[in-house]
Design a protein that fits this description.
Distance between the termini: 76 Å
Oligomer: single chain
Radius of gyration: 31 Å
CATH class of the domain at 272-374 and 407-431: Alpha Beta
Number of strands: 16
Length: about 425
């Protein structure tokens, strides 16, 4: 902020008054020096307060002007923010356009991620001297992550860890003990009742570590140059829509959080070491009420959290679900007139295509995603090039999304009886033989 001349003069005068007050007190030659110094200080304080007030007014006014300009869909001159994803992607395209005479937009920030061995990210053909992609600003990253082909299951319910570097370790209590008559929630901490003044039994807490490493998900598409030339906002709508990068990124990470192998991608709950499997009752592979009851009994629902993640192909089985023989009252839908209930045994139901097919292990999953860690590297980038599709007059676009995820627990939790195991992730396994 550049101060006006009037404000600068007040600053200079206030400084001179403070210096004069100090001189009067230090020399002490005048009997009334102290009183004069106090008067000078009061005058200087008034000038200082007026300068502070002027600065606050200018700052507030500029912020409000920026808010109005943003609502109007335009940018304040010199602003470092893009109005929307369309403007950002257009600036990325212009950065590699050979006809661009204005240079690279100063609001673009390039991202370099160091790899193991000291190597940078792989380059995309046609970009001279750059190899990592332009960072999507936080405002546009939120826009990119706001749309998906189907409602995101894991991310809204998981523990989000903001990663400031490529790898981060999260310490957790080691809850792998199985000794009977002892709680295993607290790792190596042991608790005893004892007589007064007797020697306390020593116990040491045991800890493990969950390591999150930013995994790269790459999305790729092509768009006609006419789409870019005619309207940048059309390009933003295309890339941020449910069938564009926004939908693809959300779908892919959600699928990995459920099914991921952990090798070069997140570790999904269906492949985690803390998963508990419940044998299917029916030899036909159909889901029964007993199956659901057993899943619920093995489920760790701390805080009342949890959600059913059910294959879309199971919907007809769940709709027609009946209770045990002789007690058919345990039906999910009371009649065919009302809509489908939103809960099952008190927990919300999510229908998805991301679980295995009906009859396969994991087609019915009960999950408490509060025990799932999502590591956000916060370094999603977009890059583009004309050269691989130049003869078709198309531009190629690439988004690189950096994220990791894995369950917080490394094994099921054994209860006090030393036998019963529960977990925040319980699946229905194969049919009985």
């Amino acid at each position: 902020m550049t101060l006006s001349l009037n404000v600068k003069d007040r600053i200079g005068k206030a400084k001179a008054l403070y210096e004069e007050a100090i001189r009067l007190v230090e020399e002490g030659a005048d009997p009334e020096a102290g009183q004069k110094a106090m008067g000078l200080m009061e005058e200087a304080d008034k000038l200082r307060e007026s300068v502070v007030q002027a600065g606050e007014v200018l700052t507030t006014a500029q912020e409000k002007m920026g808010e109005i300009d943003a609502l109007a869909g335009r940018q304040v001159p010199g602003s470092k923010k893009f109005a929307d994803l369309g403007e950002f992607t257009y600036a990325v395209w212009q950065s590699m356009n050979p006809r661009n005479t204005k240079g690279i937009d100063p609001r673009l920030v390039y991202f370099h991620e160091e790899r193991a061995g000291g190597h940078d990210a792989k380059d995309m053909g046609g970009n001279v001297g750059e190899d990592g992609g332009y960072l999507i600003p936080q405002e546009q990253r939120t826009e990119l992550m706001s749309i998906s082909a189907e409602d995101a299951i894991v991310r809204p319910r998981a523990q989000i860890i903001r990663m400031t570097r490529r790898q981060v370790g999260i310490p957790v209590v080691d809850q792998t003990g199985t000794t009977a008559n002892r709680p295993h929630w607290f790792g190596g901490l042991q608790f005893y009742w004892q007589e007064e003044a007797s020697e306390a039994t020593e116990s040491d807490p045991k800890f493990k570590e969950v390591t999150l490493t930013a995994r790269e998900m790459i999305g790729y598409t092509r768009a006609p140059n006419s789409l870019i030339d005619d309207a940048a906002i059309s390009l933003g709508d295309f890339l941020s829509g449910p069938m564009g990068f926004a939908g693809g990124v959300a779908w892919m990470e959600d699928d990995a959080f459920i099914n991921g192998s952990g090798a070069g991608q997140p570790l999904g709950v269906l492949n985690s070491p803390c998963l508990v499997s419940v044998a299917r009752e029916s030899k036909t592979g159909k889901v029964t009420f007993t199956d659901l009851a057993r899943l619920r009994a093995a489920f760790l629902a701390t805080g009342g959290k949890g959600v059913w993640v059910l294959s879309q192909g199971l919907m007809d089985e769940i709709i027609t679900l009946n209770g045990p023989t002789g007690n058919p009252s345990y039906i999910w839908t009371p009649n065919a007139a009302t809509g489908l209930p939103g809960t099952l045994l008190g927990l919300p139901v999510m229908w998805t295509e991301k679980t295995p097919a009906p009859g396969q292990p994991g087609d019915a999953l009960l999950a408490n995603f509060a025990f799932y860690l999502v590591g956000d590297r916060q370094a999603t980038t977009i890059d583009s090039t004309q050269y691989d599709q130049w003869k078709y007059n198309k531009t190629s676009w690439r988004v690189v999304h950096r994220v990791d995820g894995q369950p917080w627990l490394s094994s099921p939790l054994t209860l006090k009886d030393g036998v019963t195991q529960i977990s925040p992730f319980v699946r229905l396994s194969s049919k009985s033989t």
